[in-house]
Amino acid sequence: MGLFSKKERSDERQTLDNGLAKTKESFFAKLTKTILGKSTVDDDVLDRLEETLITSDVGVETTLKVIDKLQERIRRDKYISTSELNAILKAEIAMLLKHDNGQFPATFDAPLPHTPYVILVVGVNGVGKTTTIAKLAYRYKQAGRNVMLGAADTFRAAAVEQLMLWADRVGVPIVQQGMGADPASVAYDTLQSAIAKHSDVVIIDTAGRLHNKVGLMNELTKIRKVMQKLVPDAPHEVLLVLDASTGQNAVEQARQFTQATDVNALALTKLDGTAKGGVIIGISDQFQVPVRYIGLGEKMTDLQLFNPAEFVDSLFE
Description:
This protein is of the alpha/beta class. The chain has an 8-stranded mixed sheet, with helices on both faces. It contains 12 helices and 8 strands. Strand 7 (291-295) and strand 8 form a beta hairpin.
């Protein structure tokens, strides 16, 4: 259990490389202009690099951390050639990506730390939340898990209907009470049903809007309390889904949701269609929340568990 074949690993890496193609093309085009005609990293190169990172959606705060580290290196070594810049940047970015420190299953078929393993999904409408839940259900089901969905985003009729449709396509059971139902009641019933049916993984959809932080906080606190009556340490993942293609918009959503609730995992969708993949670096560093999943295409298998080392290798390849 927990092991991929060499072919599966190769296929996943190819999907990652293809999905990051636009980000890599944009980032390295800007980086090439930064060092054009230069042999050493001087103040002019650092200024240009700062602009490159910010315009690559890494974010101002994280960019300044990288620049400070490079300035420290220059003060220490007195000299950095532009040919060394890639390797140094790669190392600095790798250090900025937040690791989950083993709190989550390493693969979809790895032993689960809790049964049922409860994932509570939050995020605004339009970011790919529903399809991310469907892909998660598919990946866990393919790994031999019994999966159950809960439709607790009850303020938008389409949200319940879409999740029901995806549950049918993936072939997993779903608990729903229709539009207008109490989200906490749906979550409780989902967990109760999952326990009765010995489900391994429970994925509950909720919070499809961010009308105000207090309302969101109250709703998610209520959901958490009712679930903990059945599973004391639930939810195990509070997963915030963000659309990578929105760049700094995704950063603002991360700020709002992390202030409103205890988000402990991130999913970044639509990476394959954007040059803004650098936003992963800034969000992971700024909010100190690990990126758990990345969406790299339309296929059900195009949702991958995020591997920071492979991401950096692919970005700089």
